[in-house]
Amino acid sequence: MKKVFSLVTLIGTFAFGQIKPIQIDSINSHLYVYQTFNSFQGIDYNANGMFLITDKGIVLFDVPWQKSQYQTMNDLVLEKYHLPVIAVFVTHSHEDRAGDLSFYNDLNIPTYASSFTNSILKKEGKATSKFEIELGKTYRFGKEKFVIEYFGQGHTADNLVVWFPKYKVLNGGCLIKGADAKNLGYIGEANVTEWPKTVQKLVTKHPKINQVIPGHDNWKANGHIENTFKLLEK
User: Fold this and answer.
1) DSSP letter string over 1-66?
2) Fewest beta carbons within 10 Å, which of 27, 35, 127, 222?
3) What is the DSSP code (8-state) at residue 67?
C-alpha cells in the first residue's frame, strides 16, 4: 500500500509527531507479525510486516514504514531473539513494503524482490534488491520454509504473497484488505477489475488457511479475504 486513503497522500512527507514504537506479536514460536506506523494529522495508520525466526537468523518480510526504524527493527530482534536479520523479502514496491533497500544492501543483508518490483524501483530511482525472487520456489532457511507467490494484479501490478506451508499461514500483503477495512484505500496503481480474480486464484490454490495476515488494519480479526471480496464488489 502506498497511501492508506486518498486523503493521506502526503504521509511520509508531512508526517509529524513522535513515531509510534514497533509492535510485535507472535503467531507461533517461529512466525511473528510486526506493525509499524505512519501518522497524518495526529492519526496513526499501521502496516503489517512479518518475520520468521530460523536457526540461521531472522528473515524479514517487508520493511518498516519509516526508514528511521530500519535500524531500530534490526536492533530490536537482535536484542529480543538473539538473532540477526539475515534476509529481507519485499512483496511490492511501495514505501511500506520495499521502502529503501539501500539500507540493507549497505549492511550486506541479502535483499529479495521480484523482477517486476525491481523494474518499478529502478524507474523511480530507488534501490533495487540484490537478488530476484524466484516465484513459486520453496525457500529454506534452516528448518523453516516459505514460498513467494504471484497470482496476478490487484492493489498493484506487482503484489506478491508469502505462503508458510508448515503453518498454513498466508502473508497476504496489500493484496488482502483487513476484515475491518471500509474501503480499498489507495487504488492509484490498482487493477480493480483483475483484483477479485487474483484473490480467487489464491483461494483456489490455498483452500485451507489457518491465518491470513492483511497488509494493514487489525490482523487478529477474522474475515480478511471475505471482506476483500466484499469491498471489490462495491
Assistant:
1) ---SSGGGTTTTTS--SPPPPPEEEESSSSEEEEEEEEEETTEEEEEEEEEEEETTEEEEES--SS
2) 222
3) G
State how far the Cα of 153 lies from the Cα of 156, in Å rounded to an integer.
Answer: 6
Q: Where are the domains of the chain?
A: 6-233
Per residue in 91-128, pLDDT (tens digit) is 999 999 999 999 999 999 999 999 999 999 999 999 99
**Position 181, amino acid:** A
- CA distance linking residue 175 with residue 163, whole number of Å: 13
For the record, the C-alpha cell of 134 comes out as 524466484
Is the domain defined by 6-233 classed in CATH 3.60.15.10? yes
Phi and psi based region of residue 84 (left: phi greater than 0; alpha: psi -120 to 50; beta: remaining)? beta
Strand order in the sheet with 57-61: 23-26, 31-40, 43-54, 57-61, 85-89, 111-113, 131-132
